[in-house]
């Protein structure tokens, strides 16, 4: 990788681009969904299906951080059911989706732009709940994120996170293999776009304005939360509804955990 490559700058621009392209992670909830939430009919997703209701409990009056979770999706719904919600995200365009919903539907949201690995702006014990959907795949080192989540939660606070099953990163993505129904192992886990793609493949990703990704192993995803001090109290897996890779036809691509600061 050229020494001048700035991961944060590149990924922020790539997510701004995705938001402008109306990616599934950037499609704001409708006013109807907010109205329904105000009537008590609501759910939020960190995997394709809504979370089990008992993972969230009653969030009214709670301080909630939506961590790297902008896009106008989870945060406005949680605000509509009475939570005090802060969103931190790297991408100004993703944050603009939350700002749009808040303005449109009369919701209060605190929006912060920044890197999930530096959460020093938030004091110790500032939150009751942190929601951290499918986003630690965009940073190479996630232990600082788990440690900071533990610091920012109050006692008995809950961290709900989701991430990709590391197995989805191992296969060669050449469509010629998929056309033959083949999964050809090529990449070891932990996986890094920066270290394991060829220079030409990386340049093609940059040209397509795609964010750089990292496939963390379970020792970072699960072991990292335990090392930070959390107890893992809930676990679920879900298949990808429209598999992008052959391997996703055979195992759940999404994993979510519910962890508690005891
Ligand atoms: C898959 S989206 C998740 C948000 C979405 N609302 C959802 O439901 O999953 C990943 C998010 O991570 C954000 N992100 C990527 N790198 C980040 C970083 N270093 N710090 C904070 N946010 C980051 C992106 O801007 C994007 O909004």
From TrEMBL:
One of its GO terms (molecular function) is S-adenosylmethionine-dependent methyltransferase activity. Residues 66-160 form the Methyltransferase type domain. It comes from the Bacteria. This is Methyltransferase type 11 domain-containing protein. It comes from Achromobacter agilis.
């Amino acid at each position: 990788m050229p020494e001048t490559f700035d991961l944060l700058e590149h990924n922020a621009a790539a997510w701004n681009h995705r938001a402008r392209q109306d990616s599934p992670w950037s499609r704001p909830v409708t006013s109807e969904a907010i109205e329904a939430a105000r009537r008590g009919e609501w759910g939020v997703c960190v995997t394709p299906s809504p979370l089990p209701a008992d993972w969230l409990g009653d969030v009214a009056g709670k301080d909630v951080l939506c961590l790297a979770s902008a896009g106008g999706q989870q945060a406005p719904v949680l605000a509509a059911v009475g939570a005090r919600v802060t969103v931190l995200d790297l991408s100004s365009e993703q944050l603009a989706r939350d700002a749009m919903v808040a303005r449109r539907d009369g919701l209060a949201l605190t929006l912060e732009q920044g890197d999930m690995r530096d959460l020093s702006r938030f004091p110790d014990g500032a939150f009751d709940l942190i929601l951290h959907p499918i986003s630690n795949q965009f940073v190479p080192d996630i232990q600082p994120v788990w440690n900071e989540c533990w610091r920012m939660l109050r006692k008995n606070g809950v961290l709900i996170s989701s991430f990709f099953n590391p197995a989805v990163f191992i296969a060669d993505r050449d469509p010629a293999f998929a056309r033959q129904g083949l999964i050809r192992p090529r990449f070891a886990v932990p996986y890094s776009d920066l270290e394991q793609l060829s220079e030409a493949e990386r340049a093609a990703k940059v040209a397509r304005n795609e964010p750089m990704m990292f496939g963390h192993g379970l020792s970072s995803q699960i072991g990292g939360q335990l090392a930070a001090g959390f107890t893992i109290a809930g676990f679920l897996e879900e298949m990808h509804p429209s598999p992008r890779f052959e391997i996703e036809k055979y195992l759940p691509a999404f994993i979510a955990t519910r962890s508690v600061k005891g």
